[in-house]
Amino acid sequence: MQFNKIVLTFSLYILCGMVSGQEKTSYVNPMIGTVKMGHTFPGACVPHGIVQLSPDTDTIPHSINGVYQKDTYKYCAGYQHDDKTIVGFSHTHLSGTGHSDLGDILIVPVTGSLKFNPGTADKPDSGYRSRYSHDTEKARPGYYEVVLDDYKVKAQLTATERVGVHKYTYPEGEVQKILLDLTHGIYNYDGKVLWASLRVENDTLITGYRITNGWARENYTYFAISLSKPIKKYGYVDKEKPKYSGFWRKFDLQNNFPEIAGRKIVTHLEFDNNASAPLVIKVALSAVSTQGAIKNLEAETKGKSFDQIAAEATAKWNKELNVVDITGDIDKKTMFYTSLYHTMINPSVYMDVDGQYRGIDHNIHQVEGFTNYTIFSVWDTFRALHPLFNLINRERSTDIVKSMIAHYEQSVHKALPVWSHMGNENWCMIGYHSVSVLADALDKGLNIDKDKALEAMISSSNLDYYDGTGYYKKLGYVPVDKNGSGSSITLEYSYDDWTIYNTAKKIGNQTVADAYQKRALSYRNVFDHQIGFVRARLSNGEWKTPYNLLSTHGEGFIEGNSWNYSFFVPHDVKGLIKEMGGDKQFVQRLDSLFTMHLPDEFFAETEDVTREGVMGNYVHGNEPSHHIAYLYAWTSQPWKTQYWVREIMNRMYRNSIDGLCGNDDCGQMSAWYIFSAMGFYPVCPGTNQYILGAPYFPYMKVNLGEGRYLEIKADKVSDKMRYVKSVKLNGKPYTKAYINYDDIKNGAELTFEMSSTPNKKRLFNEDEKPYSLSK
Amino acid sequence: MQFNKIVLTFSLYILCGMVSGQEKTSYVNPMIGTVKMGHTFPGACVPHGIVQLSPDTDTIPHSINGVYQKDTYKYCAGYQHDDKTIVGFSHTHLSGTGHSDLGDILIVPVTGSLKFNPGTADKPDSGYRSRYSHDTEKARPGYYEVVLDDYKVKAQLTATERVGVHKYTYPEGEVQKILLDLTHGIYNYDGKVLWASLRVENDTLITGYRITNGWARENYTYFAISLSKPIKKYGYVDKEKPKYSGFWRKFDLQNNFPEIAGRKIVTHLEFDNNASAPLVIKVALSAVSTQGAIKNLEAETKGKSFDQIAAEATAKWNKELNVVDITGDIDKKTMFYTSLYHTMINPSVYMDVDGQYRGIDHNIHQVEGFTNYTIFSVWDTFRALHPLFNLINRERSTDIVKSMIAHYEQSVHKALPVWSHMGNENWCMIGYHSVSVLADALDKGLNIDKDKALEAMISSSNLDYYDGTGYYKKLGYVPVDKNGSGSSITLEYSYDDWTIYNTAKKIGNQTVADAYQKRALSYRNVFDHQIGFVRARLSNGEWKTPYNLLSTHGEGFIEGNSWNYSFFVPHDVKGLIKEMGGDKQFVQRLDSLFTMHLPDEFFAETEDVTREGVMGNYVHGNEPSHHIAYLYAWTSQPWKTQYWVREIMNRMYRNSIDGLCGNDDCGQMSAWYIFSAMGFYPVCPGTNQYILGAPYFPYMKVNLGEGRYLEIKADKVSDKMRYVKSVKLNGKPYTKAYINYDDIKNGAELTFEMSSTPNKKRLFNEDEKPYSLSK
Questions:
Q1: B596-616 burial, b for 16+ CB within 10 Å, e for fewer?
Q2: pLDDT tens for each residue of A360-379
Q3: Who's near A110: CB < 8 A, 6+ residues apart?
Q4: How many CA atoms lie within 13 Å of B500's alpha carbon, on the beta-carbon side?
Q5: Of A440, A515, A746, A767, which is most buried by a Cβ count within 10 Å?
Q6: Are A244 and B68 an interchain contact pair (Cβ–Cβ within 8 Å)?
Q7: Do A195 and B218 touch (CB under 8 A)?
Q8: What's the gap between Cα A655 and its chain centre?
């Protein structure tokens, strides 16, 4: 394990008792995942807040003069721990994504002569960016601190849901200055900022907005900035000659003129040094208006000091993280609570305190009876993150599903979110997996309008122009000569359609159920029985030749080769086993997946994953495989789940800066870890079943809300004692391969007797095996 | 008089009895001013509606590759009668301005193969524009018709306040197509459109918006388009490769994909020809949202046919134009009612039917107790247009003033409008003349919050950074070495400050009155007593040397040379006479102004004016001189007003396409004509006095509202009988040089006895002469 300075700082921080040892926040290390592929950010936010105030160490444009810059990808969260300089602090960040965006409203505390360009990492003095040292960096949930060495300014950051709060301590006697660079952004390019506008309302209040065309096609970021001391002097640089020949040239923009607008605006402000009293800046965001931002500013921070807000941020995190108590060693606890932390960043609340928000139709809507959320990376999160919310945060999950249904209603496509953020649909990745999210929410009894949900699910699955859906409906599969990801899509649509089938069946709509039951078996149309693998199929019905089971690109797959993807039939594992030639072959196939070697040439085709994110040919750093280790439950060798899940947890989740083996993907990677640590996993969201593995900790107590607790005991569990000898539910022997949500929802005690050897007698009868569509 | 085809068409139209001879709309010729400098548009609108649906014959970009294109100016209203082609029909137009903008949401009915560029006038086949003939063109208030020859499509246009309605009759059997070009605009350039977005909500409803950076710095135009028949097929051309690498490329934008967004979008739609039934398109605008546009669409046009809406538009115009009855010949009546028509286009209502509007702070506001208006060309319109509203349309005037006060409250500068449109301040031209508008409104008893108004007036006159105000306050004048228009500005600030003085005095705020009384005499600081003219002054107190009284540029003036501008002291004419050397010299000076020759080299410096707009050295095509012909009232030869005013009316207002001698300037030129035709003019808005000239018509009846009428009788008036022998007010001899508003506000009868020779005995005692600040 890499145990470098930051971890040291972090550990010292705990040892120094700055937060109580019992507080869950003390087990969170926001630095985990901030290097290489994790794409997490170290900055300050509160649970599911829209503000993620964090240092950006670089923001490579996605194109320069039309040429794509591959390092753009590196900066999905704006921060890479290897970097030696910090550009500044911006207010919005995606957590763990494989695509970059945001980085809105950059503030940099500076001293001395002003520079209006960020400069470059190799020549930091060429711009306003500053060198920094990890020695001065502190990060905990809701708080971040660093010293910008070039300016000797200590920057402390905290946040509320909608407000980022900065505290800058300047060197004594130095004129205190800040830059507000409205051209800065992640996934930037020359032209991303469609428009920016700024008003100095009075000497302690600035309002403004910018509209960007980034990954989010149209992102409206309004803001209100409150300053703890009066502005003494300010001005603007407009890096683009304004094209309109209005009469703005009448004014001196460098001399306290109270407004500016344009595409490329950088503002500089100076303050009295006030005997070096720190400068506190509160930046409220809104997607609605500057009026909305002011309301948010006042509601969440009025009259509160930086320290108060920071303390409240910590308290919010402790409250949320308290949902689980565990015993275990500090590294594992840190990994666990950091994972839990990472499941609580996105989706993010996307409405003003008065309930107004910008919809997917870009109209302003008023919520009725729910909180609106955004940032839906559904291809990732339908798997474990939403099921986790349904277990431990049902109120938020209800709001998220209602937000998705509002999205559906406002969508011109009448479609649920695919990859949606800030009132935009990005159509990223594949499938229409929000149907799974709705299905699982309904199955878990959330208070959702069932008929409206089914309507939305049906509508979302019938956009003929969307990603092969027309072919899928006509041919039963998506041909690769029409769509390069056709085989992956066919598998995922099959599962999605199963969730519609299952929902319709429960609601009692037999016609829909029948139609979708048929569609749910479409996966068979891409299984080549000759080889027992999914294989790319052409629109004339023939298989693609030649084919390569280890390759992803060109073989009809995305983020997973046929070896991994062929296991993606979570709703019909029995059917899948049959396709693969029966139990013996299926188990062998699983064993091989985890143990075979993936040659470098094929590893190069995996995306978003480090070498550590691959175990054999099993790719954990991407999502299509997340359920695979649990598939042994349907076989004659279920104990192998217990082995491999613990291997994955040990090897791929480590309390170190590079501890994540792939993109955290808005919490999906982390949610997998949380479930697996509990000893079960939702292989097929929408069923009532969690497939049993083995607990990771000796003791865990999960708060299900309303005074209901799930206690999970595995007294002697360890890497050695990783096998389950027997299970008891509420003190009674329990022999099934899964537990039902209904068995635990009112509170329960699950007790695992652990062993250093597999209990090969703990086999499951047919009726103890988990659900499959086909019998 | 030029009597060409259009006038013929127009007259035939009346003769054919298509509208009743008594209807006032039959006397309106929207073609007047549509060539050369008039800058009026011929299209369809209703009184003060935000939609002005009109053909654009060209829209020269204001710059091509950074090079300014002077013909941009020619197309301020989008139409020049000389042009041989029509580009299409767009929904927003400024009326008579000297700066161009708008031209939003262009629709073109087409047939055959599609073209996505407008092409050029010299090569019309290179684009979608069409040839047309004035023979097929018909225009009346609220209605416009033309045949696009290249497509053989008859286009008929009408409007409500917020909806433009198109009726397109295609050739039988032809596939009916339209283009919706979201890149089109007046004052266009490559980059004016910051963003455009479009959704095909269903097969008869399209919504969308675009945000432009034109003359209006940020203009938000949302729309909802309802179609009378279902769209059969549609697609888009995005003329700019989208910069974001989102996943939109998954979709086929040419094949009925229901949304698009970008900077350069052209949409094409096809319809069933339905046995050639015409296509009716209703385009509702909103500055708030597409929701707002849909509300406007439904409230104003739901269930109504094109013919119904056109009939309602006519009825609205007749109602408004009915405010005045006159007797007179048809050409003069046409000029009169066309002028009245031109005073009723701008300002325009700027809010949705539910009272929501976009403020100058770009937040969405809800009106409370007023209707919000925009398009304030205040430097022009403070003179006669607002005073005219205060006489004949007090309710609208109240709303306009309340809109100005709302602007003030939302302005970061805490300033009333200077030149404002679509929620933007353009700061065009000089002065802070909204203070005059408020002062006159208060003087005429409109229901305005007096204290709030005074607060706004004081605040607007104290922006030190605005156009020399700081110097003006410090030095008593604006030095030309600091501001090229310093002398014009000094004169106009002096008058503006008088309105604040006078308002404060009436409210009883003596401190403010005293301060502004002093400021109101600042005009003296730019009068060079040596020469008796206003002269450019430097910041060191010295006069600029050399100087040229006939030149504008470089001499401290704008839109008027010293000869004209030296008369701009409307609030202190007695003081002015003194500055100029007494009565005799003053009269001689006035006489000379009207009769001397302005050499071509100096005419070249006048802006916005045709040669006909200059009489001697008197420039009527620009506004600074508009009051001058009335200044004889303060002298020993008051009858000369009667002579020159009628000369100006006869020479500079003609019922022909080129009948306007300069920009109509949102109705100011026309309002001058209306007042002058009534026989009096508000030389100094804010006083209670209208200065008497002589009526233009034998009989006029002006509806002052609430059953009150002003009758103006001048039985034998003619070009010959242009002189006033005597005046009676309500049958009693009236001997003053002016009438008070209070004398006529409850209705009155003004009777002028006319004569072919001046009544040189009709002289005014000191107490019968009009107001002057100094005695």
A1: eebeeebbebbbbbbebbbbe
A2: 999 999 999 999 999 999 99
A3: A128, A130, A151, A153, A177, A178, A179
A4: 30
A5: A440
A6: no
A7: yes
A8: 19
Q: Do A465 and B255 touch (CB under 8 A)?
A: yes
Q: Report the C-alpha gap between A61 and A192 in whole angstroms.
A: 10
ipTM, 2 decimals?
A: 0.95
Enumerate the domain spans of chain B. Answer: 24-319, 370-755
Q: Which two tokens stand for residue A124?
A: 């930091």
CA A380 distance to own-chain centroid:
8
Class of domain B370-755: alpha beta
Residue-wise DSSP of A336-364 = HHHHHHHTTSSSEE-S-TTSEEE-TTS-E
Contact A585, A593 (CB under 8 A): no
End-to-end CA distance of chain A: 46
Edge-first strand listing for the sheet containing B699-705: B324-327, B699-705, B708-713, B748-755, B723-729, B732-734
Say which residue the tokens 């319709």 belong to: A504
CB of B747 within 8 A of CB of B709? Answer: yes
Nearest to A548 by CA among A618, A506, A599: A599
- B687 φ/ψ sector (left φ>0, alpha ψ -120 to 50, else beta): beta
- DSSP class of A771: P
* Distances from the Cα of B450 to the Cα of A390, B405, B442, B504, angstroms: 60, 11, 7, 9
Closest CA–CA distance from residue A715 to any residue of chain B (Å): 49
Summarize pLDDT for B641-696 with one digit per residue, the tens.
Answer: 999 999 999 999 999 999 999 999 999 999 999 999 999 999 999 999 999 999 99
Encoded tokens for A672: 């997998």
Chain B window 5-24: which residues touch A at a Cβ cutoff of 8 Å? none
Q: What CATH number is given for B24-319 in this structure?
A: 2.70.98.10
Of A77, A83, A81, A80, nearest to A99 by C-alpha is A77
Let me know: does A25 contact A141? Beta carbons within 8 Å.
Answer: yes
CA nearest A630: which of A671, A672, A602, A599?
A672
Rounded distance, CA A730 to CA A736, Å? 14
CA dist., res. B226 & res. B219, Å (int): 23
Q: What is the pLDDT of residues B525-552, one digit of tens each?
A: 999 999 999 999 999 999 999 999 999 9
**Residue A541 reports pLDDT greater than 60:** yes
Residue type, B769: K
Distance from CA of A269 to the nearest CA of B (A): 17
Asked if B159 and B29 touch (Cβ cutoff 8 Å), the reply is: no
pTM of the model: 0.95
Query: In whole angstroms, what separates CA B163 from the centre of its chain?
Result: 20
Decide if A72 contacts A60 (C-beta within 8 A): yes
User: What integer pLDDT is reported at residue B198 of this predicted model?
Assistant: 96
Give the Cβ contact number of residue A21 at 10 Å.
10
End-to-end CA, chain B: 46
Between β-strands A748-755 and A708-713, what pairing exists: parallel, antiparallel or unpaired? parallel
**DSSP letters spanning B6-56:** HHHHHHHHHHTTSS-TT-GGGG--TTTT-STT-----SB--TT-S--BEEE
Distance CA A332, CA A131 (A): 33
Neighbours of A173 (CB within 10 A): 8
The angle, 0 to 180 degrees and rounded to 10, between the axes of the packed helices A434-443 and A450-460 is: 160
Asked if residues A168 and A155 have their Cβ atoms less than 8 Å apart, the reply is: yes
Residue to substitute from B65, B412, B466, B482, interface A, most A β-carbons within 10 A: B412
Helix B434-443 to helix B394-410 angle (10° resolution) is: 140
Residues B674, B340 contacting (CB under 8 angstroms): yes
Residues in chain A closer than 8 A to B289 (CB atoms): 362-364
